[in-house]
Amino acid sequence: MSALEEWLVTLESGDSSVEHLVECATLTSDALAAGEPVVAAFAKAKEAYAARDLAKQQHCVVAGAELVELWPAVERGEPLPAARARRILHAFQCAAGAAMDLPEIPLSTVEQLVSYTERALLHVGAEPYAAWSLLARLDFIRGETARVSEWVARLSPTINRYNWLVNFTTCPGCELTQIAGWMYATATPDETYAVLEPVLTGVARWNDPPSHGTWLDRQLGSGICEGSRSIAPRLYARSLANAGRWQEAAGEARKALTRSKDRNPEEHGRLLTMRLEVARVAGKGTTVDRCVKELVPIASAIEDAYELHDALVAACRAIAATRAEKLGETYVDLRGKALGLARRLDGRLERARHVAATERLLPPAAAAPPA
After folding, report:
1. pTM of the model
2. Which one, of 325, 319, 366, 357, lies nearest residue 338 by Cα?
3. Can you tell me the distance from the alpha carbon of 122 to that of 112, in angstroms, rounded to the nearest whole number?
């Protein structure tokens, strides 16, 4: 094992941090200079994964594009150990996901990253289910509702622990929260609960091959990761709030807040979106005031344009509904930002829809709140 390979092993076990990103980039450069492109590829894969973990979406996309250039060396190399294959595949998945979050990235670029995910899956002898999930999200962004429904029907039988471990999908709990997120705008709380029930209750019955049940219990346990355990009650709380069931929504919101690590601006923004929607329905102006004051200073740090747009719309609707004190000018400012984001989101779509939807939800000026 070369010194660069030893360095890679050390990096692969490290936690995500800005310093870690720098070290991964340095190893990539050093490995290329030393004629070890495969080591460089694995270092770049770790960089892309860590950037996504830190919610640095632009950094993740750049790292993913650099990984595309390095991938042919991996294909020409020796067969990949499972852990290294998972790292490469997750890096392509992370880069494709990050590119979807940034509306300035053309969808053709997203498609290229998805194609490399599928290419890598086939290279390691895996089924293409992880690529299907990305393609479904791509159709969701395009607004192709019927196609998303087709993808959900196609993906649902593949959501299990076996495919998570063997075919490099995400955990079953995360797959279900993603589907619930696609359904959010149109689903009833009961429909949302039906999708999220295994995560919300912790009682999971996955469609695993019976012959592998004991092995999968030992390797993966329930198949529900900590991330999905915090995401599911947040999504369910928002669904309940939209249906006017604010007391139940408040209970689920408390679960989400308890379980979330809230470790970056994007996660903080998601939680604020949930809290604002519950407070709007409950008529709690003081909570709206507090949440808006938390949102304003972190908004510029949220790189995911869809998440930020979601948060800004939730803030404006909550201000208008509760006549939150001293927030009249804030409404006008946040509405303007929401429309600006909507124009960005529409910029790469053939059938623009975000501006019209935002204008429909947010009237030009809220009624003047009480002094």
Report:
1. 0.89
2. 357
3. 15
3 state SS of 137:
helix
74: its two tokens = 């991996």
Tell me, what's the pLDDT at 326?
Answer: 67
What does 64-131 look like in DSSP terms, one character per residue?
Answer: HHHHHHHHHHHHHSSPPPHHHHHHHHHHHHHHHHHHHH-TTS-HHHHHHHHHHHHHHHHHTT--THHH
HSE, CB side, 13 Å, CA atoms: give it for residue 159.
24
Q: Give the model's pLDDT for residue 100.
A: 96
75-101: b (≥16 Cβ within 10 Å) or e: eeeeebeeebbbbbbbbbbbbbbbbbb
Query: Is the Cβ–Cβ distance between 278 and 321 less than 8 Å?
Result: no
Q: Is residue 13 pLDDT above 90, yes or no? A: no
- 320-335 pLDDT, tens digit per residue, is 998 876 677 889 999 9
Give CA–CA dist 354/339, Å, rounded: 8
- Whether the predicted pLDDT of 262 surpasses 70: no
